[in-house]
Amino acid sequence: MSASIRDVARRAGVSLGTVSNVLNRPDQVSVGSRERVLAAIAELGFVRNESARQLRAGTSRTLGLVVLDIANPFFTDVARGVSEVADDAGLAVILCNSDDRPAKESAYLDLLAEQRVQGVLITPTADLAPHLDSLRRRGVPVVLVDRRATGPGQCSVAVDDVLGGRLAADHLIERGHRRIAFVGGSSGLPQIEERHAGVVAAVRDQWGDEDSLTVFAPDVLTVATGREAAAQIVGMPAAVRPTAVICANDLLALGVLQEMTRHGVRVPEECAIVGYDDIEFAAAAAVPLTSVRKPRQEMGRRAAELLLAEAGDDHVHEQIVYEPVLVVRESSMARRSTAQGERTA
Amino acid sequence: MSASIRDVARRAGVSLGTVSNVLNRPDQVSVGSRERVLAAIAELGFVRNESARQLRAGTSRTLGLVVLDIANPFFTDVARGVSEVADDAGLAVILCNSDDRPAKESAYLDLLAEQRVQGVLITPTADLAPHLDSLRRRGVPVVLVDRRATGPGQCSVAVDDVLGGRLAADHLIERGHRRIAFVGGSSGLPQIEERHAGVVAAVRDQWGDEDSLTVFAPDVLTVATGREAAAQIVGMPAAVRPTAVICANDLLALGVLQEMTRHGVRVPEECAIVGYDDIEFAAAAAVPLTSVRKPRQEMGRRAAELLLAEAGDDHVHEQIVYEPVLVVRESSMARRSTAQGERTA
DNA sequence: TGCAGTGGTTGACACGTTTCATATCCGTGC
DNA sequence: GCACGGATATGAAACGTGTCAACCACTGCA
């Protein structure tokens, strides 16, 4: 098959160890041998066998990243951040898409364990499988992404989603909205639950109760399910129909926006929309979307750095929580004046 | 470190070969030994060492996918198709983002070669590096994705982009548009050149010359550069300003749409827009985007299948070309009647 | 009793690399 | 002339697995 280090050595007329030295400590080798070895490498088209290196080294130069939905640009942005750091460290990233399905997730974790990855970055499905513990017990560093660690002994990079939910709700209430819908999800992801909790808290603080908060919980968080939720909202009697919608992510929000427009409901005049994540498409929507911004790429970078740091034995586990920022755009701009009118009425 | 097959053997009181047999040919092993081995595996938390398997086998159970832009949903859809097939074949996918930069591309190809991947799926940067040939010479199967093979001896899965460009242009011309802009790219990707060529061909057929076709060539194909192009278009004097824009991909189209809307140019009444790829966000845009559909996921699947087939030695190289389909949506719906008025005027 | 056959099991070997203790060479200072 | 040290070069050992020829115990048959 392909040439090995031994073939190179023979061709260059040196020993096997010398070739290895040329590859790994070129300065410890005389110019003459080095040149002959390099020439032989070129002639034979020699390529290092990474498996053999790994076997010898006991660990690979790879790192696993498991995401919930590869089609969600939030995760591709995170991935971009991760691979920046990984590239600099000379590591390859194996990107796995669990599709929010525990079965796929655990299959991928097995695979990553067999690959002896240096570590795993994961946004886990709801029930943070015991699988993760078993990985850690085996000494594989794990860093949670967009999900707060439940206990100590683990690193995580997350966002204060309760605050995020609160920001969104406060903004809309301050704008004069009195009936709000929250479009979340039913898969039980804590991130989503917390966003919901934040909205509920804000609503309670301002209104005393949450009677005017309608909650929708589609099974997955996609553009398509966002459209479905919007269709339901549009179908509600005008007297109780929410005048604003908070979505648990931007995909849902885009779906809601599209369906509203399709039904002739003007955004933001008749219905305001707030998304979550602030993916690039949020700003690019024809009615630019107000959204709760998370430092997507930065989260990926930071998570990868934590993972690498975990190799050092003086490592202290860190749980980083970013503060989200509400980015106000057109989709929630109207209503203040009319709302005040309503309030005094 | 972690337990090896040898530890398991000792623990189960069997030989090393028996453990291997339990793992690879369970039926050739007596029930008793099998159970004891499985028990030992569970107790020790044994996980196969993939590097060692690879070293022994000479090849990995991995496959490389190199894309131009991980942030473009077109490629994540392709990736989804690829991993479907890969999963079924028990292969892992290493997803690499070249960012349309030859340097990154070739670094990743080196990496994949060192990993001894079973094959590489790639949408290459413009100058289909000699790197690819060197891979093939080394016996690594390569399948081109969204890019037609230049010669025989290689597999590819592509789309007839000349036809795609033609469809878009014909549609707009038939709708009555007489001044069209093409927003492409300057990186020299053949896919883009062909789309351009298709548009030019259609325009020439219908108008005799291409004086009324304005071409923009931003350096990258993103939402941001789409906005910039639109800003230029909007700034043109009304008498020469195109009434329709064909974009080389949907990201550009979304950018154009947003900027048009921002400037109060109504889409499609004052300016029609046609995108390319038909990513999900195209339909979800507030003015749903007319776009040239490619079978994104199917392309990924098919490419992966071709790659796997290339292992068999009776394999004949195949160059698959899909026919794109124009999906007409709101962004290009208006104008027929007014256009006819204009024409007669 | 001997022999062929069978279902299980064994352990040495090979895969390609890195590492490390050891060997070689050459110049320098005493 | 000799000991010493620095710069290079060497090759055996080890990493964990899969394979395969050899082996074993046992059965059925002649």
UniProtKB/TrEMBL annotation, chains A, B:
HTH lacI-type domain: residues covered: 3-57
MF annotations from Gene Ontology: DNA-binding transcription factor activity; transcription cis-regulatory region binding
Top-level taxon of the source organism: Bacteria
UniProt name for this protein: Transcriptional regulator, LacI family
Family matches, as InterPro entries: HTH_LacI (IPR000843), LacI/GalR-like_sensor (IPR046335), Lambda_DNA-bd_dom_sf (IPR010982), Peripla_BP_I (IPR028082)
SUPFAM superfamilies attached to this UniProt entry: lambda repressor-like DNA-binding domains (SSF47413), Periplasmic binding protein-like I (SSF53822)
Key words of the record: DNA-binding, Transcription, Transcription regulation
Entries under PROSITE patterns matching the protein: HTH_LACI_1, HTH_LACI_2
